[in-house]
Structure to design on (448 residues):
């Protein structure tokens, strides 16, 4: 089929409920680029929504998966141990943000891993309720729909949801009404910490600590806008959990595996989670997710309560081993911090520039998990996104606020980063000048 015929076929036969950035058809991917069926080559600053962190078809990861596919594809974990599963645990143990995180369970998707964490928290504490953050994204399964608070589209029309879920504000200083009206007294560097007050009030008004199993948090808010918490927030959150015998669960599905410049985002603040959730970058595109916790918590579950037909697939685990090895051998985190500084400098310069700064509200993020929030009411982010597509570059919008996010490969070269920065800067300036994007395939945003 031709590219247009394939797109028409997909539009007709693929579920309409899937949000999609473009009706282009991807043929192949290599490093920082994807190539469409028609031959169009595009610089990819989406990495499959933060999945192909080491770039598309990383040679070592591809080789490991190919080798494992010739030995054992499906080693069902409820039947026996399989080597790649155990080798992946060996590879990940030294990378954990705290030595107490020593016992693993692997599954397939991020949402499944979140549900595994809910099961563990409820069972280990013998308490039902969980608290999530406003703006958080945890998935689209029935359990995680109840927890996701980034947009109503994920749960609209699917109620009733899992009970026992409460929410509190995330410290989103750029949109905080207290900060906005404090005449500069409160800001990201000097947060009013009202979200912590709201949490303490919630524990007094709506869900008593004796009924609350866990607090789930993305250490850097993902689909809610790539928002890092202010200094000291997570440390105090940890204290509140300890004071009230509540588990702290870090959902690092998107911000983990080097995305923020640390292997896991919680390391920026030195905070120990009781349960850590991981997925996306763990296997660079092969379906794999997991949770890790203390052995004493994990051992409270009876054999048979956890599992899954494809949980911890052997090929995916072999890819995960190769990913962990690449982080060490290729000095990935050094590159994240160097390239992240370059991208951040360009975004800050665009905000400071008289030609483009008028449409920019906020620049934020860590490492190569960066966002540009536009002034509201004009759809600037989608226009910048479309302009980038006109220039053969893929980027994504996010959040209920007018925000564009940048998720390039963690091993992107200096040259490709410079190319990406030039495209983004041109797109921002053209939109600020009132130019309309050319007609592209853009029809909204990839939702996650």
């Amino acid at each position: 089929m031709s590219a247009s015929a394939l797109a028409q076929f997909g539009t007709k036969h693929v579920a309409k409920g899937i949000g999609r950035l473009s009706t282009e058809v991807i043929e192949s991917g290599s490093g920082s680029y994807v190539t469409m069926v028609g031959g169009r080559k595009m610089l990819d600053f989406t990495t499959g929504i933060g999945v192909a962190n080491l770039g598309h078809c990383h040679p070592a990861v591809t080789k490991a998966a190919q080798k494992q596919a010739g030995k054992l594809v499906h080693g069902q974990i409820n039947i026996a141990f399989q080597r790649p599963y155990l080798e992946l645990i060996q590879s990940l143990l030294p990378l954990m943000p705290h030595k107490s995180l020593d016992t693993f369970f692997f599954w397939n998707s991020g949402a499944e891993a979140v549900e595994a964490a809910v099961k563990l928290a409820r069972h280990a504490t013998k308490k039902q309720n969980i608290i999530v953050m406003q703006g958080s994204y945890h998935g689209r399964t029935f359990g995680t729909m109840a927890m996701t608070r980034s947009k109503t589209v994920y749960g609209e029309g699917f109620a009733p949801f899992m009970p026992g879920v409460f929410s509190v504000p995330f410290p989103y200083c750029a949109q905080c009404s207290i900060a906005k009206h404090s005449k500069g007294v409160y800001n990201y560097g000097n947060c009013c910490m009202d979200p912590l007050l709201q949490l303490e009030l919630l524990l007094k008004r709506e869900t008593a600590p004796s009924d609350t199993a866990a607090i789930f948090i993305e250490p850097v808010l993902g689909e809610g806008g790539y928002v890092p918490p202010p200094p000291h927030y997570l440390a105090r959150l940890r204290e509140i959990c300890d004071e009230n015998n509540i588990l702290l669960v870090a959902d690092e599905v998107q911000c983990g595996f080097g995305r923020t410049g640390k292997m896991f985002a919680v390391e920026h603040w030195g905070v120990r989670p009781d349960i850590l959730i991981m997925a996306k970058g763990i296997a660079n595109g092969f379906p794999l997710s997991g949770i890790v916790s203390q052995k004493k918590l994990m051992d409270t579950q009876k054999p048979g309560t956890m599992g899954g037909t494809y949980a911890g697939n052997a090929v995916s685990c072999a890819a995960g081993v190769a990913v962990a090895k690449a982080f060490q051998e290729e000095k990935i985190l050094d590159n994240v911090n160097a390239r992240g500084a370059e991208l951040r400098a360009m975004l800050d310069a665009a905000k400071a520039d008289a030609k483009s700064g008028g449409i920019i509200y906020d620049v934020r993020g860590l490492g190569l998990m960066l966002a540009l929030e536009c002034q509201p009411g004009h759809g600037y982010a989608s226009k910048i996104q479309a302009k980038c597509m006109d220039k053969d570059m893929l980027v994504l919008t996010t959040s209920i606020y007018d925000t564009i996010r940048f998720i390039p490969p963690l091993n992107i070269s200096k040259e490709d980063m410079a190319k990406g920065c030039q495209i983004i800067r041109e797109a921002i300036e053209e939109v600020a000048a009132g130019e309309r994007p050319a007609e592209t395939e853009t029809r909204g945003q990839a939702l996650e």
